[in-house]
Specification:
Elements (H helix, E strand, L loop, with lengths): L2 H32 L11 H9 L7 E6 L12 H22 L3 E4 L12 H14 L7 E4 L3 H4 L7 H10 L6 E5 L2 E6 L10 H21 L6 H6 L12 E4 L35 H11 L3 E4 L6 E5 L3 E5 L12 E7 L4 E7 L3 H39 L9
Parallel strand pairs: 1-2, 2-3, 5-6, 6-7, 7-9
Antiparallel strand pairs: 1-10, 4-5, 8-9, 10-11
Helix pairs in contact: 1-3, 1-10
InterPro entries: Calcineurin-like_PHP, Metallo-depent_PP-like, MPP_MPPE1, PGAP5/Cdc1/Ted1
Protein name: Metallophosphoesterase 1
Family: Belongs to the metallophosphoesterase superfamily. MPPE1 family.
Length: 400
């Protein structure tokens, strides 16, 4: 085989290796990560035994995927490469999760955009179009989006225009009850729970009070009390099960000091004190939500890190980490199996950005080494050939 053939073969092998690494890092790595995830089972507890004894069927199970803080970059502070890299990561992760896991509903817990609070109408429309492309889904999956402080601004920045623009874009109202397969999901605009009497705050609190009344009446719908029947006569009826609260801000906690796990805040940040109405809800707003609704679970975002908290020794809260590489090296999302009598949760971790960078760097270093080595081999081969031609005796043949 000639040196030229060896060089061509080496180049083809190198090109194939580079293409393989690219395909793995940009496509296959998401399958490798998400294939390790699965839907959790549900512990229905004592009620399951009662139903089995009575011959009643098991309640339907709803499969829901929960993610948070996508932070699509805007036109002001977003670098084009940052947009390209991190948004491609979220798109591939989301589309791969839909293909492999097939959730019935996906909840995004706010901060969909990074610059929604100051986006111009044109920039807002562009950002919404990018979101719709990245998080496209079939009719078999419903997408439910909650509002966060980066979407409409912190309390002092939000106004009716920003809120209604968000609600129109995602065909939603920022505070409402969503009921699926006998499970009540309470969607809360937590940005408006400052309790200072602002117009949006008053509207949200009024809606929450009405939803609380309706839900409590649904839980007491079999009561024989005439007072309760009269109080609830015009109430909207929901399944008689405590709700699952979904919101952007976490309920009040002092810090992340008690948080553990792969996706918890870094150790040096866990003891930093949270600010009420900025990092977490105020104590007053948190207490009001828990007393009004007595939820069986609270799911929140905002901190970009994972945490599990038990409020008042009876109300569990899960903080869902950011879905974006820009906010953490190891994004994740929650898989939830929900029924009217129980639920199960599991966490699905996406590929780490540092792993992808390391693969590209090692491939690039290997490629540079081989590209340097190939001319050296070619030079040594040519030098040996010339030396052989000069020093080796020429054979003589006799002809008859």
């Amino acid at each position: 085989m000639s040196c030229l053939s060896v060089s061509c073969s080496a180049v083809i092998v190198l090109f194939g290796a580079v293409c393989s690494v690219f395909i793995f890092c940009e496509y296959l790595i998401y399958y490798a990560a998400i294939l390790q995830c699965g839907w959790p089972g549900i512990d229905h507890g004592a009620r399951a035994s009662e139903r089995s004894a009575d011959g009643q069927p098991e309640p339907e199970v709803l499969r829901a995927m929960v993610l948070s803080d996508t932070h699509l970059l805007g036109a002001v502070g977003g670098h084009w490469f940052d947009k390209l890299r991190r948004e491609w990561q979220m798109e591939r992760a989301f589309q791969t999760a839909l293909a492999l896991l097939r959730p019935e509903v996906v909840f995004i817990l706010g901060d969909v955009f990074d610059e929604g609070k100051w986006s111009s109408p044109k920039n807002w429309d562009d950002d919404v179009c990018r979101f719709q492309k990245m998080f496209r889904h079939s009719s078999d999956t419903e997408l439910v989006v909650l509002v966060g402080n980066h979407d409409i601004g912190f309390h002092y920045e939000m106004d009716w225009f920003k809120l209604q623009r968000f609600e129109k874009a995602f065909n939603t109202t920022s505070t409402r009850m969503v009921t699926k397969k006998g499970v009540n999901f309470l969607l809360v605009n937590s940005v408006a729970l400052h309790g200072d009497g602002c117009p949006i705050c008053q509207s949200v609190e009024k809606q929450l009070y009405t939803l609380s009344r309706d839900l409590n009446c649904s839980l007491l719908q079999n009561s024989e009390s005439s007072i309760i029947r009269e109080y609830c006569q015009d109430a909207w009826t929901y399944p008689s099960t405590p709700p699952i609260i979904l919101q952007h801000y976490p309920l009040y906690r002092v810090s992340d000091a008690g948080c553990t796990g792969r996706d918890a805040a870094p150790p040096e940040e866990r003891h930093l004190l949270f600010r009420e109405k900025y990092d977490v809800l105020s104590q007053e707003a948190s207490h009001r939500l828990l007393q009004w609704f007595k939820p069986r679970l609270v799911l929140s975002g905002h901190t970009h890190s994972g945490c599990q908290v038990l409020h008042d020794n009876q109300y569990p809260e899960i903080s869902v980490p950011s879905f974006n590489w820009r906010n953490r090296n190891n994004p994740s999302f929650i898989l939830g199996s929900f029924s009217s009598s129980g639920y199960g949760l599991s966490k699905c971790f996406l590929p780490e950005e540092s792993t992808v960078i390391a693969l590209y760097c090692s491939t690039g270093a290997s490629l540079l080494f081989l590209l340097f080595l190939l001319p050296l081999v070619h030079f040594l081969w040519m030098r040996g050939l010339l030396r052989c031609l000069i020093l080796c005796p020429i054979s003589k043949h006799k002809f008859l």
